[in-house]
Amino acid sequence: MMPNDTPLDAFLVKVLRRSLLTDEEQRAILSLPFRMEKIEAQRDFVRMGEQVTHSCLIVTGLAGRFGQGREGNRQITALHIPGDMADLHSAVTPQATSALQALTATTIAKIPHQAIHNLVARYPDIAEAFWRECVVDAAVMSEWVVNIGRRSAAVRLAHLCCEMAFRYRLGEMVEHFVFTFPATQHHLADSLGLTSVHVNRMIRVLESSGLMKVRRGMIEILDWDDLSEFAEFDPTYLVFEDSPRTPMRASLPALQN
Amino acid sequence: MMPNDTPLDAFLVKVLRRSLLTDEEQRAILSLPFRMEKIEAQRDFVRMGEQVTHSCLIVTGLAGRFGQGREGNRQITALHIPGDMADLHSAVTPQATSALQALTATTIAKIPHQAIHNLVARYPDIAEAFWRECVVDAAVMSEWVVNIGRRSAAVRLAHLCCEMAFRYRLGEMVEHFVFTFPATQHHLADSLGLTSVHVNRMIRVLESSGLMKVRRGMIEILDWDDLSEFAEFDPTYLVFEDSPRTPMRASLPALQN
DNA sequence: CGATGGCTTGAGAGGCTTCAATGCCGGTGG
DNA sequence: CCACCGGCATTGAAGCCTCTCAAGCCATCG
Predict the structure, then answer these.
(1) In this complex, how many residue pairs, one in chain A and one in chain B, have their CB atoms less than 8 Å apart?
(2) Cβ(A91)–Cβ(A116) below 8 Å
(3) Which end of chain B is more exposed for a tag (fewer CB within 10 A), N or C?
(4) Which of A111, A117, A126, A145 to mutate to test the interface with B (most CBs of B within 10 A)?
């Protein structure tokens, strides 16, 4: 089945890298109802503690999930790029435990939980696929814990850039490339548990080692192999096509309809 | 329905705090097949990269999920106590992206993925409940990112102790109490992104402020209110009983069977 | 052209680490 | 019953990585 031109396409493409779905199931996902919304930079579109009734798919721009300490210390716990369902988990735990904020001008597609529930009740394979998406998000966060907890600032920054590069390119890496990444140094700092001052210095360190450049709104990878080596970056946790797809399916009784 | 005496009871109790399940569904979970296994302290029972075929329920003891940097730097990304299904997510992503290690002598119940898949294919509500468990685990990790990224060592340690206290007591808190927690200071350090030397010093700081004591294998909370205030601990991310339980259920067509 | 937001750079302070030695305690074997 | 042993906890001193504070710069925008 060919994706057409819905905002849901990018999401479906990502899902299909990890879960095997029939044409009917794919069509069902693509026909999910949604309402587009433009969010200006620095605005929260999900607030902490709120009762959420929609899941948010990032269509363009960049969004961050924020936790915070008492004294205004903000920490980004996840970054979401176009094609990510930033909020899929809220379908299953509607009370938001953290805030979602647009880091730059962002458009989102809001999908009613109701529709998601109808979908997964009807298609167990889709339920499993969505469950899997949430598990992959958790694996990414697990890697962030390691990154923040146990790596030096320079390696930390390099690792984040590798992850974002890998996610933007869906794993199709080459030696040297550029991608747009509209996060400020302050956003990077909040993602890394550092200050923006120190992020700035580390950017210069990486640049002077010839590994990468960070400019306003974009990142240039100069040498992917050296960089990912330096960053201790191993993309396995992003669970892409290499891993077996739903290996049990064959042995399941076909219950759906 | 009354829990009887299976290792699965504790797990079911936790699931029921977050998901509404019928008697039949509860019975189905309790009749999941499993094989008990004793793991000695410091031994990995799931290795990184391994293809996993079972999910592990912690029955007694304490287990840690480990990520690691290049130079032997270990970072614990999750702690699992009795009643936790440490590995539920592996049912949906069988390639382990991190290792599971027994921190002390631990007994686990290994549940075949096959059985889990059969269960969730038959009972959509259970699929949703298991999905929700994974989402809660992710919420805990999200809080760890904030903790490690943005809080000082003393607050960080206090926060972890609050979390573990809350989880051991399933949220039934009192002013002053003791609970056994068989982690070493080294384990705490690996959970907090600190060194064991510094954890030791912070323990003494907390003790001299009269907030808590940490002894070999146990933690004593001296003043829960003051401690959780100091730790910036807000248990919302752990509990979902306040929030509506699977609010969509009523409106779903009853498809199962 | 002033205002704004982000980036850059410097100097000093401090929190945490590193290294290293000592102390404690439970277990084990003679 | 005691001596030894190994793992963990404790303590000190020195150093470094990162933070804080503060100023200057540069582009963009009204």
Answers:
(1) 183
(2) yes
(3) C
(4) A145
